[in-house]
């Protein structure tokens, strides 16, 4: 069955925020020069600008990530939670080199990333966002899908399946 179509992000924004906050980490997919997919675990923070989500990453600008985004800036961010809640964001990601925007992105990341990311922020050098080894990457989605265990909604005419799973119950011993 197809996903329910919505006209604006605001119709699924609450579910998007809930799922992103409960899951924290996601898989970022890029493609290399030979069009092979590459997945990495990242922790973006999201804000709503002009009624659309914008994602920010405070990351090292590695040669691999830089080459992939230079070749093809289209990315997918996939969140999945064991309760079968999921968010999929298809967009265009780009490095932020403008100092003012970069500092704004890093400040947003510092203020809004979950507590679980404290080690991530430290390891990426969040205290020194202007250091040459650290960078900021922004993602502007073209499509966003937010799926609860039994319902899905999509923005931009994209559809996805309806997962039928349920949140697993904790096992009891004995």
Describe this structure in words.
The protein is an alpha+beta fold and 174 residues long. 23% of the residues lie in helices and 37% in strands. The chain is globular.
In brief, what are we looking at here?
The protein has helices spanning 13-23, 63-71, 99-112, 118-123; strands spanning 4-6, 26-31, 37-42, 45-49, 52-60, 74-80, 86-96, 134-147, 152-155. The protein is an alpha+beta fold and 174 residues long.
List keywords for this structure.
4 helices, single chain, alpha+beta, disordered C terminus, 174 residues
Which SSEs are present, and which pair or pack?
Layout: E1 4-6, H1 13-23, E2 26-31, E3 37-42, E4 45-49, E5 52-60, H2 63-71, E6 74-80, E7 86-96, H3 99-112, H4 118-123, E8 134-147, E9 152-155
Parallel strand pairs: 1-9
Antiparallel strand pairs: 2-3, 2-6, 4-5, 5-8, 6-7, 7-8, 8-9
């Amino acid at each position: 069955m197809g996903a329910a179509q919505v006209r604006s992000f605001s119709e699924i924004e609450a579910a998007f925020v809930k799922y992103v906050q409960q899951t924290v980490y996601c898989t970022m997919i890029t493609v290399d020069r030979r069009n092979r997919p590459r997945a990495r675990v990242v922790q973006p923070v999201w804000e709503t600008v002009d009624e659309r989500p914008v994602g920010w990453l405070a990351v090292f600008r590695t040669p691999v990530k830089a080459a992939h985004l230079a070749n093809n800036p289209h990315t997918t961010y996939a969140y999945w939670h064991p309760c079968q809640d999921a968010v999929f964001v298809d967009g265009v990601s780009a490095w932020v080199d403008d100092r003012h925007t970069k500092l704004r992105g890093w400040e947003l990341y510092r203020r809004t990333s979950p507590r679980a990311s404290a080690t991530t922020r430290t390891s990426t050098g969040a205290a020194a966002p202007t250091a040459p080894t650290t960078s900021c990457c922004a993602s502007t989605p073209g499509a966003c899908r937010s799926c609860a265990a039994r319902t899905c909604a999509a923005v931009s005419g994209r559809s996805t399946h309806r997962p039928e799973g349920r949140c697993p119950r904790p096992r009891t011993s004995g």
